[in-house]
Amino acid sequence: MRRIWLLLLLFPLCSQSSSVPMIGGDVVILFDQSQSMGRYNAKLVAEQLLLTLINTFGVNNPIIFAGFAEKVEVHLRIERYDTPQTAIDREQLRQQIKAIPLRGKVTDFEPALRYLERYDEQQGALALAVIITDGQPDIWDRKLRYLNPEIRHDPRYAQLNQRQEKMVEAGATADARYDALNHGYEEKNNEIIEQTLTQLASKTGERLILLNLGSGAENFMRQWHERAAATLIETPLPVAADANQAATDTLLRQTLQQLLEISSRLFAVPLPGDAGQRIDLASDSDLFWTPPQRDSEKEQVVTPQPPTPPAMFVPPPPWYTIPLLQQQLLLSWVLLLYLILRIRQRRDFARRALTFPPLDDPLYVDAVQRRLFAISTTSPESANRYLDEQIREASSSGNKTRLRLLELEKLKYRFDRRISLRAKIPPDTMALICTPEVTSPLTIIDISLQALHFHCAEFNNAKISGIQLLSSGETFAIATYHLRKRSEIDYILLLERFVNETEHRMRWIELLTRVESQTFPTKEVPPQ
């Protein structure tokens, strides 16, 4: 009887624990890691989902944190643990997730779906899978002239890849290849995705959750979740910089609450009473998961208030933000000062110059004779001093003119030297990264040690931020440059300094010396 009474006292404490073993299998969180993500990107939402799941259910199943763009990259794998006392350093994991770059140039969903479809064959059982994205399917970016390199070596696209190689050999431009082949690539990609979704329906079903963060109604996501028998959650997050943070947090909290309810049903584990407090948007705790509290302790819980953000230093506005009236007044003072200096210069020159009548005036000769006679009648020393002074002034003026001509020649020599030793660039191998994007075709003609020569019909003073090699994706970030316009379509870009000056300058010299060799091919080189 005493043992039965003791078991009845301990039963409520045991029933509240969230460390009940869940169904077997891994939890996979896949987020879109392409560069097109907005302010609230998929990686941030995936991080919040990861922390919320661990806060709520512990780590009873291995958790895989992966991203997808051109292919799937597994960034973190958190193994399961059995004891609630096991702790994970929250700040360390946040830093690891923060270091994951959003470097994808396209958004190809097929590798992510194929990864999940083959998961049971290559990895093991799958308990829950969440795909987080806000973008459209995109395997060929026309702006970057970038086709997913994984597709270029996929035998399922062999016919399209052969057509593209023939167009490259024929000298077709990147835009021409895109216009001719992009529709075929998209149809083939959609066909493969449809086949993969059909196979996913029998393997994952409702264990697959599609979380769409896009602001518009994505019809393809609705068709996909029906084909794969998956669960679709639409959470349109704002991308504007001045978005209402409180409203966004409320929307994210509702979404995470919905994901917790679905996960609880799939794991066959009831949600704890304080599940709403375990949703992690910006928590400062050092542990991901803490043992559940007893009913007597819940009243003592004090919800932490977010810290007051420190006052930020606001720099003074730059000169070009000064109101127009002040700019006009400043310009007027500068012009007035310039006119005063020019008038004084002309007066000094007129005072030092000899005032003779015009050359065709008969009085000219008489004036000269009287001037020289007055000088000669004073004394020989005065005449000599006068002549010496005139000679010195003439010599000084000649020296100044000669030095100015030499300086102009020096500047011309420096400019010619910067654009000398030029090497022709093969077509469709190099591009300029401009802001805003240049709509007119931009063709790079040749490069030199410190300059780049290109043609563009409508450049419109766009800001140049870098130079990209289309074959390898390598980018030279430009810190400072000077642009000279030769004609309506002809431009010279003087490369004054790169962001990584030493490394990029040495690499630039290497490209200049090997532009005609096989190390700078016209075809795109497959990744190693």
In short:
This protein is of the alpha/beta class and 528 residues long. It is 44% helix and 17% strand.
Write the layout of secondary structure elements.
Elements (H helix, E strand, L loop, with lengths): L1 H14 L10 E7 L9 H16 L5 E6 L3 E7 L11 H9 L11 H8 L1 H4 L3 E8 L6 E2 L4 E2 L1 H4 L5 H12 L4 H30 L4 E5 L6 H9 L3 E4 L10 H23 L27 H4 L25 H29 L10 H16 L1 H39 L4 E2 L5 E6 L6 E6 L3 E6 L6 E7 L5 E11 L4 E9 L2 H13 L15
Parallel strand pairs: 1-2, 1-4, 4-7, 7-8
Antiparallel strand pairs: 2-3, 5-6, 9-11, 10-13, 11-12, 12-15, 13-14, 14-15
- The order of strands across the largest sheet is 9-11-12-15-14-13-10
Number of helices: 15
Instruction: Give the C-alpha Rg.
Output: 37 Å
Structural class: alpha/beta
Please tell me the overall pLDDT. 77
Strand-residue proportion: 15-25%
Strand count, sense and closure of the main sheet?
A: 7 strands, antiparallel
Poorly predicted regions are: 1-21, 283-303, 521-525
Annotation, overall tally of beta strands: 15
Helical content class: 40-55%
Backbone shape: elongated
How far apart lie the N and C ends? 72 Å
**Element pattern in H and E:** HEHEEHHHEEEHHHEHEHHHHHEEEEEEEH
